[in-house]
Specification:
- This protein has 157 residues and is an alpha+beta fold.
- The chain is 17% helix and 38% strand.
- It is built from 1 helix and 11 strands, in the order αβββββββββββ.
- Strands 1, 2, 3, 4, 6 and 9 form a 6-stranded mixed β-sheet that branches. A 3-stranded mixed β-sheet has the order 5-11-10, with no helix packed on it.
- β3 and β4 form a beta hairpin.
- The longest helix has 26 residues.
- The structure holds dinuclear copper ion.
- Dinuclear copper ion binds next to loops.
- The site of dinuclear copper ion has 8 residues, from loops.
Length: 157
């Protein structure tokens, strides 16, 4: 079968790009531990407010500069973040989040936190806050008329 030389050239280029993409994917899994988020836990969205730890949203101190932040997302609030949410610089905060109504998104700019918050599922993400300042938690999934107001702020001092 005759294949035109340009055709052959572009077939080789395509194969090279494919190999590169598979190589990059393999490297991100092997060297950078990339993985799909796992459903760590489930919670009945109708019982969130009476199920621990979501019955008492807020910040709790763990050991060695580590904190746990339990948040409940609802239209259009983040329960668990208020003016008392203050951690010292260098702290690692483990966020445990769920939603009682719609799918929300959780984005904290300047960190690697970018996750979906889905009714029925518990989302766990964490970040270490080395720089003091005011941080924002933004909903980045359209969740209704007041979606654009669904933000909260906390302090690293
Ligand atoms: Cu919650 Cu958009």
């Amino acid at each position: 079968m005759h294949i035109d030389k340009y055709e052959k050239f572009f077939m080789r280029v395509s194969a090279a790009f494919l190999a590169l993409a598979i190589g990059a994917l393999t490297a991100s899994v092997v060297f950078h531990k990339a993985a799909l988020p796992k459903p760590v836990e489930r919670v009945d969205p109708e019982l969130v407010r009476s199920t621990a730890p979501f019955d008492e949203p807020g910040l709790r101190k763990l050991n060695n500069g580590e904190y746990e932040a339990v948040l409940v997302a609802s239209a259009w609030l983040w329960d668990g973040i208020d003016e008392d949410f203050v951690v010292p610089a260098g702290s690692t905060v483990h966020f445990k989040v769920t939603s009682v109504d719609y799918i929300h998104g959780m984005l904290i700019p300047e960190t690697n936190i970018n996750a979906m918050v889905i009714p029925g599922q518990v989302t766990e993400v964490e970040a270490t806050f080395d720089e003091p300042g005011t941080y924002s938690l933004i909903c980045h999934e359209y969740c209704g008329a007041m979606h654009h107001t669904m933000g909260a702020q906390f302090t690293v001092e």
